[in-house]
Amino acid sequence: MPLSGTMVHLVSFGEDSSSVLLYNMHDNENSSAMAGRILSTNKGGRYYELMHNGKRNISFLFGEDSIHIDPNRIYTDTGIWQQLARNKITDTLAHQLISAWKDSLLNVLRIGERTLVIALHNNTNQNYGFKSYMPDGEYADEAEAVCKGCVRDKDDFYFVTEYPILDQLCVGQYHAVMQSNSRMTDDGSLSVYCGRLGIPYINVEAQHGHLFRQVNMLLFAYRQMKID
Ligand SMILES: [Zn+2]
């Protein structure tokens, strides 16, 4: 899928007819990619990953300018404007270009036809974890509810958009956070997009290299959500 002449590849595994979409959009989050490939091949679901330069951000040329965008900040108009502002660009054409590319991408993913979206992410930030969403945390206002599991790593957790899903995932050993769909900040991320449209969404978030944990968290989510 070319973006202003820069090729972004979309790699897929699993059955396209599945109602479950797995999606890894950050090209440097390789445990996520591996976990998604393993689950979709062995347990069902349609998996896609974005492949470009091996980095988190997608970089492309727009006239004389290089633009760098985070592929998890382009799913709303506001998010795209914020990404352009970081590049010191205010050009409406650049916005249209990214927006059209994002629409084509979501069409290929057939996101509107899925009954569940599972985003796969890896984090490095020592300060980011489920505790960031607790009452005294940095992102407390973004969360509707937090349930604390018994695993020791605070960076390995589910982030979901709906209560039925939170209830299903809270009964295990893992931490889970539910987004506040009324108070969330519109940063253009896929959870905001899904929250707005009422598309059931789970982000399985694990530290870089926690492949075994991430696979197990996916297996637990599959079992609880009755996916096969
Ligand atoms: Zn990510």
Under the CATH scheme, which class?
Alpha Beta
Euclidean distance between termini CA atoms: 30 Å
Instruction: Kindly report the CATH topology.
Output: Aminopeptidase
Instruction: Tell me the strand order in the biggest sheet.
Output: 3-5-4-8-12-10-11-9
Form type: globular
Q: Tell how many strands the DSSP assignment holds.
A: 12
* Rg for CA atoms: 17 Å
Note the beta-strand portion. Answer: 25-35%
| SS-based class | alpha/beta
Order of helices and strands: EEEEHEEEHHEEEHEHEH
**Spans of at least 5 consecutive residues with low confidence:** none
Which cofactor or ligand species appear? zinc ion
Describe the structure.
With 228 residues, this protein is α/β, with parallel strands linked by helices. It has a single domain, classed as Aminopeptidase (3-Layer(aba) Sandwich). 32% of the residues lie in helices and 26% in strands. An eight-stranded mixed sheet has the order 3-5-4-8-12-10-11-9, sandwiched between helices. The chain has a two-stranded antiparallel ribbon with strand order 1-2. Helix 1 crosses helix 6 and helix 2 packs across helix 3. The longest helix has 18 residues. The radius of gyration is 17 Å and the shape is globular. 40% of the residues are buried.
Name some characteristics of this structure.
228 residues; alpha/beta; Aminopeptidase; 12 strands; 32% helix; binds zinc ion
Task: Describe this structure in a few short sentences.
With 228 residues, the protein is of the alpha/beta class. The protein has 6 helices and 12 strands.
